## 1
Amino acid sequence: MSPHFRAFTFVDRILSVEGDGGVTVRGAYAIPDKVERFPHLLAAEATGQLAAWVAMAKLDFRLRPVAGIAARVDLLTPPRPGQTLELAADIETLDDSAVAYHGVAMADGAPVVRLHHAVGPMVPMTDYDDPEAVRTHYQVLRGPGAEPVAFAGVPLIQARPVGGQPGVSRLAIIEVPDEAPFFLDHFPRRPVFPGTLLVQANLEVTLGLAAELPPPRSGGAWTPRAILDSKLRAFIGPGERVEVETVVEECDGQTARFRVTARRGRKPIGSGTLLLAGKEEA
Amino acid sequence: MAASRWNDNMSNNVSITKEEVMAVFPKVAEIVADALGCDVSEVKPESSLINDLGAESIDFLDIVFRLERAFKVKIPRGKIVEEARGSLSEAEFEKGGVVTEAGLERLRAFLNEVPAERLKGPLNVADIPKLFTTETFCKMVIRQQRAAAGAGAA
């Protein structure tokens, strides 16, 4: 079965598209119950994809947005395999240069992620996918919906620690696989390592560094709460090597901030701030 | 673009005072510094965002959206070259991707905050964004604030 619209597509149905200037979109995605894990960031990806589908339709599939900037992503109730994500996105502005939106993914009445001030720059559709195939799938999403439970999970892309100063910084290497099912869907004409998976790997590196800090005052482990000022500057292709550095910016015993930079060679290709916290104090 | 609208843009641009620029500059500089991950002390009014501060196209998008949120204005994207060109046709403004002498004259008048030594030929059209300084963005904000005020008064 073709991985197109399956291996890295997280919208099953687009339920409503309302408005002309500012557009409000609602959709859904059923997380397959057989996948091992479904991290928060894939729910954020789903929300972004919902906005992207409608943006592409409004631009007659000439252009498609790619991941760019997010001022803030709140990581709330963890999603679980078997849940259905209820997706909502509000498109603030849309033109040939970019789509700006905010959105939320809910599951069983609880918010999973909130995206604030996200921007997706536009690229020519034909460089990445077949415009008519994308148009046809959009019509499926607006109509009967895509076949659910098509997603088989993504491989955990782990970064290998190579240096740093305990409790202060950590340097790690991500070896992007040469092949993976998600490349065939993201994107068929130009395989690009999903920015979401880069951010997920950055998060894992940061959790490793956080484990070297004193535990939070409220007990338990340091838990990701938000990603701030996330920016992706360049595409990463199959087989590439990315260096990730995470540095403790601030730690007050209950909240810790980490500055993360991803580089390819000497060139920064992504950055952001990760906010971790202990469990909420009574 | 009609000559009258270009003249309006030009008079809007020329009449922006240094005081007006410096009134918005601190906030604009903070936004540029946050977007580019540099120290705000490095951001000067005459700093070229690309050549001096290392900005890329994604950063321009980031800065414009942050300015819109901070100043509650709408900044037209991709229009600055069109505005600078004014009543000149595309053929009069550039030939083979290189800005003509007439085009350079228009750029010097419209981007009057850009040091003269940077605005000389041969200049590729694709390199025009390299001319943009922090003050260029201050003026974008001021023009849109004026446009919004004018629309509100109408």
Note: The first helix of chain B runs from residue 3 to 14.
## 2
Amino acid sequence: MRSRLPMLANALPTGAGDGAPPARVGFFTDTTLCIGCKACEVACKEWNDVPADGYVWSGKSYDNTGELSANSWRHVAFIEQDRPLRVTTSASTPSMLGSAPAMVGIALPMMRDLPVRAARSEPAPFEIGTGPDGDGVAMRWLMSSDVCKHCTDAACLDVCPTGALVRTELGTVVVQNDVCNGCGYCVSACPFGVIGRREIEGDPGHGLAQKCTLCYDRSKDGLEPACAKACPTASIQFGELDELRVRAADRLGVVQAAGYDGAQLYGASPDDGVGGFGAFFLLLDRPEVYGLPPDPVATTRHLPSIWGAAAAAAGVLGGLVALAALGRRS
Amino acid sequence: MTRSGDQVRPAEREPTPAAPLEPDSARSSTSASSYHSQPILKAPVWKRTIAIYFFVGGLAGASAAYAFAALLRGEREAARRATWTALISAAISAPLLIADLGRPSRFLNMLRVFKVLSPMSVGTWILSGFGASIGVAALCDLFGVLPRVRLLAQAGAAALGLPLATYTAALLADTAVPVWHEGRRELPFVFAGGAAASAGGAALILGSDHDGLARRVALGGAAIELIADQLYERRLDPVVAEALSVPAVHRLHLGARLSSTAGTALLLLTGRERRAQIVAGGSLLLAGALLTRLAVFEAGRVSALDPQATVAPQRARVDARSREIAGV
């Protein structure tokens, strides 16, 4: 935990007296394994009692959820692209990840606790070798289950004027429903557009901030969150963040070696603009393709210059009035 | 693919006919830079009452500073009017803010913490302290008692009034909304200038310009507001600045600049005896300050909902870093 500014509510709590504080937990979402089944979305809604947010036929591939919001804490994105899934040159190893089962085979060593479920699944991004007209144009279908990033430097938590947003002993960021007064500052502060204000039914314009809690009620007791539990391909992996980062780096190497040229980790580095994500991703293309900001920065990183300018401007205002008052009486 | 740009442009620029099942990102390949053209950020949930508060709060803060200056100069009548302007404005501010909360009954939760990290928290405390100070000052004035307490209260209100006029810009800047965040160096000066112009304008309308103090504050404030506003727009990344060009925002912004400029010109050209013109000039400055706040506020909604405003500057940063690493 870096110390940048006076932090009143942003400090990780120390241990409760006996022994070391619990390790920081999070998600590693490996999108190469996502099959777009949306079991994560459903499990999340069920477990957390998140209300429905309408039945809209968006026409945007298989995505009818649209975005993360107060009422969608997991969101599976679907991207259709006119390009092959990976580069298959003679240098790469086409047979290595050539089929969905092979993809799972590579994933298996990482899923010690989930081998049976994973082996039964039919995962991997979808690819066909030729276009609909048989013109040889390949297409691929990317899927990714998005979620709150539980940032190390969480802007939503920083700007919250009531202290309703807190960091738990597990390093996750949650809203205290009984403290939030619905000011909406967190909504505009989040660089990912994750947190939203859940409108009170029949009372538009009123409501409280809501977002993923990383199933605090489960994770504090050592259970994996509902989405990870429900994921049939272990695309969503829950665990201690340090371990997940190591696992993800290994996985990236495997995927890159197999010719997935756009593969990249997103949010795994503690050196990024939000100090690293508590929930990070392995993507097959640039973040913006998935609707994610390529270089998010916690707005409060710039707070010294923001307050500096506000103080200087207040000084100018005072100077103007003083100068005017010192002027001759006309 | 280096065909003559003029030949292909019409076809390329032609918007694709509505094809909901095949949006941009589904058709294009690696160059796609948005997810189905959807916003990345959430639109601010704040209603326009907040923009109006920015204006009223600025008027309150700068009026308190003006009132203290007038008091020190022995202009008791001008000080009294400005004090009451500040008090009434502060009294209007609180309901404007509370009405916008998702749970207004929990307004007091704001006062359970003080967070430098949160401009809204700091601002709540500033407004609370300001309201108390200006209230005491106005009561002392009303009953003509405790002159020393009044002076102290006026000084306190003036000292809190200055940040009251500018913290609102910090509040906007401390968000992920590109057109607000990227204006973090200029917006406080836009708001400070607007606040001075409003306070001076209000004092002029109320006829408190016996020795030119109100006029100087009004004209100086309008000048700062107009210059800072120009700097704000010019220094923005062009993609981010597009939020100021959409018609709804542009109309407000243009109206703001015209109002402030016309008000300034009117006050500069009008003699001190021409009451009607002075009232018109002061009103134009007030309108200009209000419209500026509304323009900046509305630009934020547009900016948040434009994925390119979020992606383009960030992508440029990432690409610059990769070039640096590659040693190009």
Note: The first strand of chain A starts at residue 25 and ends at 30.
